[in-house]
TrEMBL record:
InterPro entries: Ser/Thr_Dehydratase, Ser/Thr_deHydtase_PyrdxlP-BS, Thr_synthase-like, Thr_Synthase_bac/arc, TrpB-like_PALP, TrpB-like_PALP_sf. The gene is thrC. Belongs to the threonine synthase family. Keywords: Amino-acid biosynthesis, Lyase, Pyridoxal phosphate, Threonine biosynthesis. It catalyses: O-phospho-L-homoserine + H2O = L-threonine + phosphate. This is Threonine synthase.
Length: 351
């Protein structure tokens, strides 16, 4: 009986752990790489989705969190803290439980999806809603970790990036090489940094013969990397990437430039269109921020930037169940029927 052991055991030789490191895991990673039929037809390419919503807490954050909480435990920390738009806090709360630690999370008031808040609550995190945005939360989290006995587990903690780079390893292990293009949503810019690091390592001394071009997409109302300046009051329906001053700014620019890629923006309307397409035509339910990668790919294709015949991977970062409001909003109301087959068949258009 074999099951995936989690990213630390699966990629132990490429991660900063020793034989005595107390590994804290929920067996994250090993997520599906799903061929995307409709997106492939639309672009004339071979498009795959890396479905990170299949991780234990429903987002890619678990890859970094298994490393961050493991390291915190190794160093004897009893409490961890993070700033979050929701997914990092859900993941930190769950892994802190596994490690027997206290978790504290700082979230922007009124701007995190209900499912994510529910996760932090049910895992017993201490939650503070901050009267400010994510960037303010991160400033506060850094100050607390510098002045009080609590370890910071945001992606400014370099071991988070180490854990997250394993997604690139998995893709190369599945495909036999790196894709031509890798597409990601970008918020705080940790994940694009991590993927690029993973691809570079695997091309330098691993099984990859080449490296992909990195394409990142921010939401138009929260696109500091596209504008080239901090966005003071970021806005977007994709609350996970509502960030105006990404912590990994320079690393994201380096990933873009070293790979010959680009970072562009997509509107909320484009995000929601991709969100619905993924669910209705690919069978993959993601949260709105995740759809920014696919929205970006479709936008680039419409602009003629996508040469046919390429192999493309889009990471879809979080599970749709985290923020179901957008699935329900604008959808037709289900009809009520009596317990009567003829009536039900009529309503279903079968009769
Ligand atoms: N997609 C989802 C679902 C996210 O939760 C995030 C970031 C991103 C994309 C962007 O990734 O920040 O590495 O560029 N969420 C963080 C959080 C900010 O607090 O959960 P990034």
């Amino acid at each position: 009986t074999h099951q995936w052991r989690g990213i630390i055991e699966e990629y132990r030789d490429r991660l900063p752990v020793t034989d005595t490191t107390p590994v804290v895991t929920l067996r994250e990673g090993g997520t599906p790489l799903v061929p995307a039929q409709v997106l492939s037809e639309r672009t004339g390419c071979e498009v795959h989705l890396k479905v990170e919503g299949a991780n234990p807490t429903g987002s890619f954050k678990d890859r970094g969190m298994t490393m961050a909480i493991t390291r915190a435990k190794e160093e004897g920390a009893q409490a961890v803290i993070c700033a979050s738009t929701g997914n990092t806090s859900a993941s930190a709360a769950a892994y802190a439980v596994r490690a027997g630690m206290v978790s504290a999370v700082l979230v922007p008031q009124g701007k995190i999806a209900l499912g994510k808040m529910g996760q932090a609550l049910v895992h017993g995190a201490k939650i503070l809603q901050v009267d400010g945005n994510f960037d303010d939360c991160l400033t506060l989290a850094r100050a607390l970790s510098e002045n009080y006995p609590v370890a910071l587990v945001n992606s400014v903690n370099p071991v988070r990036i180490e854990g997250q780079k394993t997604a690139a390893f998995e893709i190369v292990d599945m495909l036999g090489d790196a894709p031509d293009i890798h597409v990601l949503p970008v918020g705080n810019a940790g994940n694009i940094t991590a993927y690029w690091k993973g691809y570079k390592e695997y091309a330098a001394d691993g099984p990859a013969a080449r490296r992909p071009r990195m394409w990142g997409f921010q939401a138009s109302g929260s696109a500091p990397l596209v504008r080239g300046e901090v966005v003071k009051d970021p806005s977007t329906i994709a609350t996970a990437i509502r960030i105006g001053n990404p912590a990994s700014w320079e690393y994201a620019i380096a990933a873009r430039d070293e790979s010959g890629g680009f970072i562009d923006e997509v509107t909320d309307r484009e995000i929601l269109r991709a969100y619905r397409l993924l669910a209705a035509q690919e069978g993959v339910f993601v949260e709105p921020a995740s759809a920014a990668s696919v929205a970006g790919l479709l936008k680039a294709a419409e602009q003629g930037k996508v040469d046919p015949g390429q192999r493309i991977v889009c990471t879809v970062t979080g599970n749709g169940l985290k923020d179901p409001d957008w699935a329900v909003a604008g959808a037709p109301q289900p009809v009520t029927v009596p317990v009567d087959a003829a009536a039900a068949a009529e309503r279903l258009g079968l009769a």
